[in-house]
Write a structure and sequence with these properties.
The complex is a heterodimer. By secondary structure, chain A is mostly beta strands. Chain A contains no helices and 11 strands. By secondary structure, chain B is mainly β. Classes of the chains: A mainly beta, B mainly beta.
């Protein structure tokens, strides 16, 4: 059984705060780690797909790092804005044709 | 132009009925998926098809039968609906070797069995 765990489960920050979340996954048979952003009443949207140990990806104020040896990834949001409010999902797979196993997500709420 | 479109968006039906959910993608992807979002908001894989061939079949009751007439379509048929089938079902697509774009998801179908 592949378990993907995310923490914290939810997070409430003020506008302008920087924040980060953790995703932990099995370090054996690693192939790729995904981050998705899921706004209420919409569908998940891919943020990053990372495959190499030490990978760092950035998109605007959002960045992610990957450590495949110890089985974790961090997602960082710099200067949070209300429009960043969403659930952030990470997902992991073990090969080209294997399923993505999702974590339960970190729900972020950014208030003014 | 919607990349992955699912119909219907909402489906309310009685126990025991048979219903279908349709999914189409216009991204040229070769692999499509059905995920179920359970009551705890958890996304769980049900099926995956690559070029019309079933490649992932999780432990799902055989009342659920996917059908892929071509690589751009993956439909989900559910027989003898039960109360526990109520959930949001998401279709997604990607290339088999998932690239930097990850999965592209449809907007979901909220199924309510009464």
């Amino acid at each position: 059984i592949l378990n993907v765990e995310q923490s914290p489960q939810s997070l409430h920050v003020q506008e302008g705060d920087s924040t980060n979340f953790t995703c932990s996954f099995p370090s054996s048979n690693f192939y790729a780690l995904h981050w998705y952003r899921w706004e209420t009443a919409k569908s998940p949207e891919a943020l990053f797909v990372m495959t190499l140990n030490g990978d760092e990806k950035k998109k605007g104020r959002i960045s992610a790092t990957l450590n495949t040896k110890e089985g974790y990834s961090y997602l960082y949001i710099k200067g949070s804005q209300p429009e960043d409010s969403a659930t952030y999902l990470c997902a992991f797979n073990t090969g080209t044709a294997s399923k993505l196993t999702f974590g339960t997500g970190t729900r972020l709420q950014v208030t003014l | 132009d919607t990349a992955v479109s699912q119909t219907p968006k909402y489906l309310v039906t009685q126990m025991g009925n048979d219903k279908s959910i349709k999914c189409e993608q216009n991204l040229g992807h070769d692999t499509m998926y059905w995920y179920k979002q359970d009551s705890k908001k958890f996304l769980k894989i049900m099926f995956s098809y690559n070029n019309k061939e079933l490649i992932i079949n999780e432990t799902v009751p055989n009342r659920f039968s996917p059908k892929s007439p071509d690589k751009a379509h993956l439909n989900l048929h559910i027989n003898s609906l039960e109360l526990g089938d109520s959930a949001v079902y998401f279709c997604a697509s990607s290339q088999l070797d998932i690239g930097p774009g990850g999965y592209t998801f449809g907007s979901g179908t909220r199924l309510t069995v009464v």
